[in-house]
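Researcher: Next sequence.
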Amino acid sequence: MGSKVSCVKQATTFAAAKSTASTHFKIILYSMFLLRDDISEIASLFQKGSILCYPTDTVWGIGCDALHESSVERISNLKGHVPEKGYVILVSSIEMLKRFVPKMPPRLETLLAHHQRPLTMIYSDTQGLPDWIKAPDGSAAIRVATDEFCRELIEAFGGPIISTSANKSGEPFPPTFGGISSEILAGVDYVVKYRQDDREPAEPSSIAFLDRYQELEFIRD
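Model: Next structure:
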């Protein structure tokens, strides 16, 4: 009799554990679908010319379609200043980068493929990028996103996006979402919900360019 009771208890416990595991799996799966749906929706906002506040692979940023002039102008007005060296452009992959930097040095391509930290490169020779996002000398600052959310967002959108820190010109960049001013949040069309609860302070990316000897020279490390 005791053996039968024990077996029943074990079966009940196993069924309960299986049900709990199944519920947890469904919650995780549902969260994944929610995130993907959000990415699709956010990408459609970029396509409509909206400006967004979103988490990047570095600090929280303000972004838009990099090729949409009036959207970039709105970001400049919100920031209160047009960057002297142009805006940072995010792409999802080296393949997308090559659309704008066709003469990619093999050594640099290898470096970017294996570099773990966010690295913004200054390219003097680009194609397909408008003057309003470039520096006065015609160079462009482009970064291959290292964050999965950013990569998926850019892929869903299908093109490069602007990435500039979510703060007024001359003010410190926000290390977390909580550091973004209400003026910035009110000035964008949409604020991404993903990673708003992160408490780990973020830092801007390193910035570098290739010198005439094809060596990396860092402007900001």
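Model: The chain has a mean pLDDT of 84. The chain has one domain: 3-220.
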